[in-house]
Design brief:
Blueprint: H1 5-25, H2 31-40, H3 44-52, H4 61-65, H5 68-87, H6 95-108, H7 113-158, H8 162-192, H9 196-209, H10 213-257, H11 261-273, H12 279-306, H13 310-323, H14 328-349
Helix pairs in contact: 1-3, 2-3, 3-5, 5-6, 6-7, 7-8, 7-9, 8-9, 8-10, 9-10, 10-11, 11-12, 12-13, 13-14
């Protein structure tokens, strides 16, 4: 079977697409010189792909194969250089020139995944920056219109040329309605993106700028949705609190039984943050237990002090003061005991 010329051309074209330029270049006799030219032009990928497609029978095969590691390093250095150049535009958020730097690198290394990924990153940044600037301009227009409205109305009433003033005021109202519509579109997009704070601001300004039923309906819907979410959150919090209350109360009493009044207070503070209703009752219980323990420590310290065990007494009073830091009586007892112990040590050292 013989092929028609058109079919032959098609098959040849398909073959070229499948094998690529590298396979074609790999058969050239002066391949080493061609690779040197590519390297001078930073076309490292074309050089590497061509070397990979070479036949072992080629006269330059050994020389070029041994050059692969060096070419790979040069390619990576070029990629890093391109990324660094592009990054120099980031502080000023000049995403367009950052893209240009990456695109220039891709002209040399069209298959570089590092550069392609960074190009996509910068494109998203640029699109996002444009959207942010447009939004800021629209919001600024709204604030201007709201601030200018009283003065525009005053000009309408006080102008010598009433007809001209009415025309100006109508133009002002047209501008206000246009900005209101733009703000609705902005608020709607924020709502879709889940940026509800920004959506409320845009929609509220839309309503203030000019009457807008769409903005009013969407804002009401957002506010209702947020109210429902708060209700659900409160119900969830109440359920969690109810479930945790027995465990927290058990931990509270356990710490009291071990004399860990500081730990008991910490548990109580956690319960207070959860608005558990039994907190006042438990706080009274803790205060009573602490008072009883403080009195026990003071009494024990008194007994030890009167029996001549000064340092042991000081320890008891220090424990009591830790539970009741504002207790002046305990502090006075400690001061007297420490003074007596100091004098006693001094007398002992100087008989």
């Amino acid at each position: 079977m013989t092929l028609r010329p058109v079919a032959l051309i098609y098959l040849l074209s398909l073959c070229l697409q499948l094998t690529g330029c590298a396979s074609i270049y790999a058969n050239r006799a002066n391949l080493a010189d061609q690779v040197d030219t590519w390297l001078q032009n930073d076309q490292y990928e074309l050089a590497l792909d061509t070397i990979a497609a070479m036949s072992p029978d080629h006269k330059d095969y050994n020389y070029l194969s041994n050059s692969v590691a060096v070419i790979e390093k040069k390619r990576q250095a070029y990629v890093q250089k391109t990324l660094t150049e592009a990054a120099s535009f980031e502080p000023s958020q000049d995403w367009r020139n950052a893209e240009n730097a990456i695109e220039a690198g891709l002209d040399k290394l069209p298959s570089s995944p590092e550069l392609t990924a960074q190009l996509n990153h910068y494109r998203l940044k640029r699109v996002g920056r444009i959207a942010m600037d447009d939004a800021a301009i629209t919001l600024a227009k709204a604030y201007y219109i709201i601030a200018a409205r009283p003065h525009q109305e005053s000009k309408l009433y006080n102008s010598d040329n009433r007809f001209f003033a009415q025309q100006q005021f109508n133009q002002f109202l047209d501008q206000a309605r246009q900005v209101s519509r733009e703000l609705y579109a902005l608020g709607h997009q924020y709502w879709i993106d889940g940026k509800f704070v920004q959506a409320r601001e845009a929609l509220s300004l839309s309503i203030k700028t000019a009457s807008n039923d769409l903005s009013s309906e969407l804002l009401a819907s957002i506010l209702l949705d947020e109210q429902e979410k708060r209700t659900v959150a409160r119900a969830k919090q109440q359920k969690e609190m109810t479930e945790q209350q027995p465990e927290l109360e058990a931990s509270f009493y356990e710490r009291i039984n071990f004399g860990d009044f500081v730990g008991a207070q910490q548990v109580l503070n956690e319960m207070k943050a959860m608005s558990i209703k039994t907190v006042p009752e438990l706080q009274d219980n803790l205060n009573e237990q602490k008072t009883e323990r403080v009195n026990q420590l003071i009494s024990s310290g008194n007994t030890l002090y009167n029996s001549g065990f000064l340092r042991e007494a000081i320890t008891r009073w220090q424990q009591a003061l830790a539970l009741d830091p504002q207790n002046v009586i305990i502090q006075q007892k400690l001061d007297r005991a420490n003074t007596f112990v100091s004098n006693l040590e001094r007398w002992t050292d100087n008989p």
